[in-house]
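> example.struct
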């Protein structure tokens, strides 16, 4: 999708710190991408100098590498191991605590969620689409909603998809379409900025910026078209419910299980996976206990524990559960698959499993 018809503003690269100043003036702490520990990861930004200037990523099944270039760009990468999920759905959080009262009864108290005001800079379209699905799933979750309300999202068009990306075929990128308050498109000389919500307009109003030129807009739109055309992977169809649910005994499941470690990396990096469990953490003196929610994975044997029996007791069943739920089961609830085409599950799989050949094997020979 081209940049919105309203003309964006242009922020020269040497004035990038002004955007940070405007965000901080609005009461937000700045969070954004950094090159750290061999990957692009989100972290607190005290200065625009901390952005990953000149860094590019190279991704393949089971492989991720950062390369330093002489490019001035900060967002010339596809995606790192994180999405937005940790900022709204915490990996570990206390929900409520209980304690023994003096009269021998039990007392209960809700734990309030920490909800800092964060401006998250450089969010890609696939992660915004994933967040929209999490918003629906956690619509009545007080902890999630408290964190979600504190987020100001600065999206950026993705001009450099990785070889593992396929957001074009899921309809979730590479251009921004939803869920952001400020949109950005990066050129060598600076950023094109536009608002997509009232909070975004308020921030941009603090900046004295010229409008972008026609040439700059054409350059940004051309980069989006090239990014879309450069993607080589794609899902074989928008709704695979019938195919997958009718192929539960296909030999492809057994074959992929021979490589799968059931480690859960794919679900940890997936921006839409929301499985979790709850445990009680009692104090050492036994006087009180904290009820904790933590991320879980359908690749963990205990996640399918039902009345003392593990329902999915082998890797074949667990891998099948993950893929059929993601690409088929989600349609009944959300009207779409749970995949946004970010390719993280392919890149961060330690054995380099790409689920596309699994689908191809299942679809082979079908009308």
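> example.seq
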């Amino acid at each position: 999708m081209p940049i919105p018809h309203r003309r964006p503003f242009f922020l020269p690269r040497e004035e990038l710190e002004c955007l940070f100043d405007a965000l901080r003036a609005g009461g937000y702490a700045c969070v954004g991408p950094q090159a750290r520990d061999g990957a692009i990861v989100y972290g607190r930004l005290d200065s625009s100098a901390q952005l990953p200037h000149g860094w590019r990523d190279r991704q393949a099944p089971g492989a991720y590498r950062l390369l330093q270039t002489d490019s001035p760009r900060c967002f010339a990468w596809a995606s790192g191991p994180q999405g937005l999920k940790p900022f709204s759905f915490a990996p570990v959080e206390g929900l409520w605590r209980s304690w023994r009262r003096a009269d021998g009864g039990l007392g209960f108290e809700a734990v309030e969620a920490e909800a800092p005001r964060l401006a998250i800079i450089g969010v890609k379209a696939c992660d915004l689409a994933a967040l929209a699905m999490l918003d629906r799933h956690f619509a009545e979750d007080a902890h999630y909603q408290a964190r979600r309300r504190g987020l100001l999202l600065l999206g950026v068009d993705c001009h450099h998809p990785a070889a593992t990306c396929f957001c074009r075929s899921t309809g979730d990128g590479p251009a921004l379409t939803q869920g952001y308050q400020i949109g950005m498109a990066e050129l060598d000389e600076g950023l094109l900025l536009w608002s997509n919500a009232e909070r975004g307009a308020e921030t941009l109003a603090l900046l004295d910026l010229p409008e972008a030129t026609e040439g700059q807009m054409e350059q940004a739109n051309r980069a989006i078209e090239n990014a879309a055309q450069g993607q080589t992977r794609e899902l074989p169809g928008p709704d695979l419910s019938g195919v997958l649910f009718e192929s539960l005994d296909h030999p492809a499941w057994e074959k992929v299980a021979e490589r799968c470690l059931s480690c859960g990396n794919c679900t940890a990096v997936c921006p839409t996976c929301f499985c979790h469990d709850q445990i009680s953490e009692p104090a050492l003196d036994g006087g009180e206990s904290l009820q904790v929610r933590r991320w879980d994975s359908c690749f963990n044997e205990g996640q399918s524990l039902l009345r003392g029996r593990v329902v999915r007791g082998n890797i074949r069943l667990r891998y099948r559960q993950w893929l059929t739920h993601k690409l088929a089961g989600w349609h009944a609830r959300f009207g779409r698959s749970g995949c946004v085409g970010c390719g993280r599950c392919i890149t961060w799989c330690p054995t380099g499993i790409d689920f596309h050949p699994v689908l191809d094997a299942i679809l082979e020979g079908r009308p």
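> remarks
The chain is about 30% helix and 25% strand.
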